[in-house]
Amino acid sequence: MPPPQSAIAQRRDDLERFEFMMGAERGRLAVTLDMLTDALILVGQHGVYCASTRNPSKPALDLETVLSEINGAKELIQSVMEQLRLKNESLAQP
């Protein structure tokens, strides 16, 4: 069985498209956001099957923690992307 591909190899097309549209740094961060969003979806689907015994309408505590951490990571990435955008805009102005 061949070794698993790196994230860069798996997302090559997305990386090329986003890097072209947004620049290398922001493009890679955008693809990272997409990957985190995919992870949120998968954890959310898993949460449907692993409901909390204390409150069946909520996911288990470990899944709540994972969801919270992924959402926090997305917020941080978005803030970095915004800072890079503002920096690029200020450099572009005469």
Structural summary, described in words:
The chain is mainly α and 94 residues long. It has one domain. The protein has 4 helices and no strands. It has helices at residues 7-10, 12-22, 24-49, 61-92. The longest helix has 32 residues, at 61-92. The relative contact order is 0.11. The mean pLDDT is 86.
What is the strand and helix layout of this fold?
Elements: H1 7-10, H2 12-22, H3 24-49, H4 61-92
Helix pairs in contact: 2-3, 3-4
- Extract low-pLDDT stretches: none
What's the helix-strand series?
HHHH
Question: In this structure, how is the largest beta sheet organized?
Answer: none
Structural class: mainly alpha
Mean pLDDT: 86
Distance between the termini: 55 Å
What key attributes describe this structure?
mainly alpha, 94 residues, single chain
Provide a brief overview of the structure:
By secondary structure, this protein is mainly alpha-helical.
